[in-house]
Amino acid sequence: MTTIDLKDPVATDPVPDLVENILGAAQYMSPTYWINEAAKLVCGTDPMSWIASQFAGDWQAVQRAGVSIATLGEFNAEYSRRIDQGVAGFPSFWRGEAADGASNYLTDYSSTIRSQSQDFAQIGEQIRQMAVGMYETANAVKGLWQTLFDWLITIGVTLAAAALTSWTGVGGVVGGAAVVAEIAAATAIWRQVVDTTGKAWDGAQGSIGLIAGLMAGLENVSIHQLPQASYDHPGA
After folding, report:
1. Is 103 helix (H, G, I), strand (E, B) or coil?
2. I need a surface site. Which of 76, 88, 218, 230 has the fewest CB within 10 A?
3. CATH number, domain at 136?
4. Distance CA 36, CA 46 (A)
5. Residue 235: how many CB atoms within 10 A of its CB?
6. pTM reported for the whole predicted model
7. Hey, which bits of the chain come out as E strands?
């Protein structure tokens, strides 16, 4: 690996938009979906996605962090391999006590960074999985908010209709009963929003616990500590 291989981490969509559009075809029946599309055209922003991101967080930033850490693990693995290659070639041009000392030092150093590469890989993968969870949570919350807004629109229309027909007496009674049922349905959707957010938080806490455990492995003195001093040539 050389500096040519260095590049900024890039977040990728866990689920292609085409697949999401096929699986979520019911969204096209939602008035809120089309209001949201109109808002995107007029304001240049996606209100539903913005709301979802406030609940679920920036999954792209988390995914980039996971990619970065996993790539650091790949670097350590390659670095270790190159050191091992160099040490294996010592006998062809260097023998003696100094060569043995350098070989032992570099072998230990290589083993340490190779062990760290495994930890970095696991941490990176865990963070990437957490990013996918955030992505799915954002989509779930977005869908629930869309449904909630549909119910709010329905409630508004029902209230308006009840007000316009209240003079008949029957219109007010029927409209009032319908509004009660619609409010109950909207409240149930809101509870789902809260429940989904709570489950996402529990999942995030679990991921953080796993990552903390892996980070402890990186700090384990007996396994992962790098040599504290540079190689000391006995003849120098």
Report:
1. helix
2. 230
3. 1.20.1260
4. 7
5. 7
6. 0.53
7. none
- Residue 4 belongs to some domain of the structure: no
CA distance 166 to 154: 18
The residue ranking higher by pLDDT, 218 or 62, is 62
Residue 203 has pLDDT above 80, yes or no: no
For the chain, the residue count is 236
Q: Which residues contact 148 (CB under 8 A, 6 or more apart)?
A: 186, 189, 190, 193
Is 231 within the bounds of a domain? Answer: no
- pLDDT at residue 108, rounded to an integer: 87
Q: Read off the pLDDT of residues 52-101 as tens digits, 9 standing for 90 and up.
A: 666 667 778 888 888 888 888 888 899 999 999 998 988 888 888 888 88
The token duo for 97 is 């006590």
Is position 228 within any domain?
A: no
Strands (E), 60-216: none
Separation of first and last alpha carbons in the chain:
32
Contact 139, 52 (CB under 8 A): yes
Q: How many domains does the chain have?
A: 1
What residues make up the domain containing 58? 31-220
CB 129 within 8 A of CB 67: no
